[in-house]
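A favour, since you know our structure tokens better than I do. Would you make up a two-line entry for one protein for me to read? Write everything out right here, beneath this request.
=====
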Amino acid sequence: MRITGTGHASMRIDTAAGSILCDPWVNPAYFASWFPFPDNSLLDWETLGDVDYLYVSHLHRDHFDAEHLKRFISKKATVLLPEYPTSQLEDELRDLGFTSFLKTKSDEVHELDGGLKVMIQALISPTDGPIGDSSLWVEYDGIRVLNQNDARPTDLTRFNELGHVHAHMLQFSGAIWYPMVYELPEAAKTAFGKQKRDRQFDRTWRYIDDLKADHVFPIAGPPCFLDDTLWKFNDIFGDEGNIFPDQSVFMAEYAKVGGTNGVVLLPGSVSELSASSIETSHPTDVDEFFANKQAHLEEMRERKAPVIAAEKASWRHPEIDVLGALKKRIEPLLEESIYMAQGVGGPVRFDLTDSFGPDGEVVESIVVDFPGKQVRPYADEKVRYRFKTGRALIEHLIHIDEGDWVNSLFLSCRFSAARIGQYNEYVYAFFKCLSEERLQYAEGWYDEHEKAVEAEDTVLGDWTVQRRCPHLKADLSRFGMVDGNVLTCQLHGWKFDLPSGRCLTSVGHKIRAEKTEN
């Protein structure tokens, strides 16, 4: 089996029974804020895109690059489609010209022509990607590969059941806006960032230990930030709170915990994988490349500046009545929302500036009033969540009829945020569900989730707690860690006060726990 690195989470898997291209991403994503690093735009995409199968793990724009898919990927390729609750991924791929689809069943092995076997595990909670994330397992002639990319399954048991895995590809770096965009003192921001960075690595070590593959490939990050206003987010300043460590940092941290089987893929790297060995060739020396990371980034910044400028020129639509358009789009969804509206529990304020981000003069302030079920001008009331961003970005979201602000505005990091109290997952869940289909699915999921009763317990230290985390049902017998009276679920870092059961990370999600009798 041959594995060719094609950048970020993308790779091409070649076997004698066919080839699979995974998650090709080349063009800037999220309001031109994210770029693949190392740069993969100079690869021979005409050849790489001539494949038998295409796998797009989910709709996040650093995995689903519509422009690139339309231009370079063969429309004769059969799409390996995850089993998602909405049809949006299939619909968008059909719009790009793809016509052949294998609609997989989650956790079910499908045998393709020539003995090639695949299985896709789909994650389908409202907080998984843009309503869905997935992992791809591939087997040919006894060689097995797991491309886990961004997905965070509660465990890897299903993949272990299918036999020993020879290559494990998984995310290790950040792919979020927290804590960088929050209006916090720099010291606090650094401390929170370090916690997140450490937690990312801890989660990665757990997955690696679960699967025990022969070879581990760090993929799916980090992006790089080439716009001048976002340049500070690149991990080149010695900031221990930066959440975007690169592959060279992964290798160093992995070595500290005894890892000796890591394999880095640059764009153009090729690994020849067998049951007993791996041989990897690179287009350039890996250590030397990362030692000169800042120079590479500066060269990219200069080369990609016209691309960013062209994108920015398309965002302003001053003819749009932002308040009126948001009322028309959001108020019907507020009327139908029960769980998410109650979960948010108050008004959310958007301050819109005359720039392309939070810097600049505020020209309009709008409130999405969840209890009042309306969108209206800000009336000087107290809010628990406030976002500050460029009015032009909201104009553009309206212009393109964007139904997922997480997969556009929030991941762009072109905003600042402030909140009073705990993190509230319902805020972000709602703004990725600005369509009837997504809203109805999310409301149904929360309804079923809230009514589920977890009867099974596990013992952690001096406490007996429900085995499944109230957040996304991670197995606390594996991911739970108790320090005094606080339980931390290491999968997503959520914390719970055990005597009261109260979630310390977000509103809701109470845990059932009692002190074990001695």
User: Anything to note?
Assistant: The mean pLDDT is 94.
